[in-house]
Every structure is written in structure tokens, then in C-alpha cells.
Design a protein that fits this description.
By secondary structure, the chain is of the alpha/beta class. 45% of the residues lie in helices and 12% in strands.
Length: 325
């Protein structure tokens, strides 16, 4: 009789809890938390998803797991380097590590897998990304995502192993495109929220999403990825969800900005991370480096920095010279 699969989930935020819950269907889970959980006498629940009861085979621990078959890194991008370095000290080199965060590291402009190639160079690495709200995944509602790595056999094996009865994974050999799409969609979602918050209408939001998708495709291709990746789950799929769903942290941030709130005031009232606000400037720095114009994403970045208002962003985008689509 084969022993059950053991999966370590690093990060007890909403997405980490959700992945721990869905993978408890096929594996025993060690969920790493920065602090000791304060479980009362009732159901075992964590504050990031307070309505979700943890399955019995999910163990919450403050120690990094070292006897697992697969690791899922589910920490914010800006905390990835620190935590992956710590994990690497105790984790055997053969254990695959899947990063599940989206964004770019500030200061280095590195994507998550690029960071982990520096911190965990001896481990098989992959990235998971897609249109996934944590609460729905935790509730067991049907969802799909992309798992990407550069080695075909490895990524196909991992996609098959990590597919659950409610989470279907599709394998991709374009980790760069998948990661870049995951970083850009957060920035684009802020812009989509601004259009609605500022009362610019559904037409404006649809136009912004479509033109930003075109920008993203050109940037992915210029950086060596596959432009078709942006039309898959990690690209347009994630954009549809993040740019229209009220549960999106980046979209709701944009709505507040569109209504006139300042970025500092919005962030001060939040306990969760809106990665788009952290990644926008770094992402927009890639365009000039690779010779790609990204006017929509640039406008969002300038708006976040307080250099322009939503009305000025609208006028600048509409006043651009006409061109073939």
C-alpha cells in the first residue's frame, strides 16, 4: 500500500489556506504559519479565511516542513526571497517547489522563479497561476489554473499529481509568460477598477482590459516568452476574474482610487496585500528595457504615484495617435 502524498504549504494567508484545503483531498498537509494559530474550542479556523474550517489532515505549524513530497510557496512576492532562503536550509534538494505568488521583486525586477533560482538552485521549480479566488477554492468550487516549468516531463508529472477533484491544472512550458501575466494582471485590474470607480463606464473598462492584454502579449514575446500564453488561464482567464470580480483586492483598490481616495489612505485601511500597487513601477520599467510601449500600464503606474488623475489618464489614452489593431 502506497503512503499518502505529503504537501507543505508555506504561507497561511487566504491563498495558502485555500490550497491547503483543496490539497487535503489528495494529501496530508503541513501549513506553515509565521505565528502560532490561536484555535479556540470550536472549529479550527484561521483569520485570513475565517469562514473556512480546516480539514483534519491539515496540520498548522511554525516550523518549515522538511519531510514532504512537494512544497507550495504561497507568500507575498516581496517576502519570497527571505522565506525561500530559510526553507532551503532544511529541505532536501530533490523536493519540487511550486511558487504560487504573483508579481515582481522590487529592486531587482525579478519574477518569482528567478528569485527562487537564486535561493533554491538545486530544487525542481515550477509556477502555478490562474483565475482563482481563494474563498471559492477553499469551498471546493470548480476551478482551473496553469502549472508552468521549462522541463516538459517534470511539469506534466506535477500537473497530473497536483490536480484535485475540484482544481484542474493545465501544464505549460512558458514559465516566463505565465509569471509576467500574473504580475501584469494585478496592475491592469487596478486600472479596470479606476474606470468603474471614476464613472467612466463598462465600455471604458472593456477597452482598457483589451488594449492592456495586447501590451502584455508584446512584452511577453519581447522578453522571450510565448505571446499565446496571455490568452490562456494565466493571462486572459486571470484578467477576466481580477478585472471584474468584486472580491479582487487590486480591482477594489482601483475602484477606491477612481472615487477619489488616496493610495496611502486605501492601503492604511487594509491588512492584505494588493500586489499591483507594489509591482506597477517595476513592471513598467520592463517596457523601455525591451522596446515595448505599455501606455495602459504606464498610466496606472503614474496614477498610483499621484502624477495624474483618472481624468488625465483617460484623456492621455484617448488622445494617443490612431493605429491599426
Amino acid at each position: 500500500m502506497n503512503r499518502p502524498l505529503h504537501i507543505g504549504v508555506i504561507g497561511a494567508g487566504a491563498w495558502g489556506i485555500a490550497l491547503a484545503c483543496t490539497y487535503s483531498q489528495i494529501a496530508d498537509i503541513q501549513l506553515w504559519s509565521r505565528s502560532e494559530p490561536d484555535f479556540g474550542p470550536g472549529p479550527r479556523r484561521l483569520k485570513r479565511l475565517p469562514d473556512i474550517t480546516l480539514p483534519s489532515n491539515v496540520t498548522v505549524t511554525t516550523r518549515f516542513p522538511d519531510t514532504v513530497d512537494i512544497i507550495l510557496m504561497v507568500v507575498p512576492t516581496q517576502a519570497l526571497r527571505e522565506n525561500s532562503l530559510k526553507l532551503a536550509r532544511s529541505l532536501p534538494d530533490h523536493v519540487p517547489v511550486i511558487t504560487c505568488c504573483k508579481g515582481l521583486e522590487k529592486g531587482t525586477s525579478l519574477l518569482p522563479l528567478e528569485v527562487m533560482r537564486q535561493t533554491m538552485p538545486h530544487h525542481p521549480l515550477a509556477v502555478m497561476s490562474g483565475p482563482n479566488f481563494a474563498i471559492e477554492v477553499a469551498q471546493g468550487l470548480p476551478t482551473a489554473a496553469t502549472l508552468a516549468a521549462s522541463e516538459r516531463v517534470f511539469v506534466q508529472e506535477m500537473a497530473e499529481k497536483l490536480t484535485t477533484p475540484t482544481l484542474r491544472l493545465y501544464a505549460s512550458m512558458d514559465p516566463l509568460g505565465v509569471q509576467l501575466a500574473g504580475a501584469a494582471k494585478n496592475v491592469i485590474a487596478i486600472g479596470a477598477g479606476v474606470t468603474i470607480g471614476a464613472g467612466l463606464g463598462e465600455n471604458a473598462r472593456a477597452a482598457l482590459i483589451t488594449r492592456a492584454l495586447s501590451e502584455l502579449g508584446r512584452l511577453v514575446e519581447a522578453m522571450g516568452g510565448q505571446s499565446r500564453t496571455v490568452y490562456g488561464l494565466a493571462g486572459v482567464g486571470d484578467l477576466i476574474l481580477t478585472c471584474t470580480g468584486a472580491g479582487s483586492r487590486n480591482y477594489s483598490l482601483g475602484v477606491s482610487l477612481g472615487k477619489g481616495a488616496s493610495l496611502s489612505d486605501v492601503l492604511a485601511k487594509r491588512s492584505t496585500v494588493a500586489e499591483g500597487a507594489l509591482s506597477a513601477e517595476t513592471l513598467c520599467g520592463l517596457g523601455p528595457r525591451y522596446g515595448v510601449e505599455t501606455p495602459v500600464m504606464d498610466a496606472v503606474n503614474r496614477l498610483l504615484k499621484g502624477e495624474i488623475t483618472p481624468a488625465q489618464a483617460r484623456d492621455e489614452l484617448l488622445d494617443r495617435p490612431s493605429r491599426l489593431e
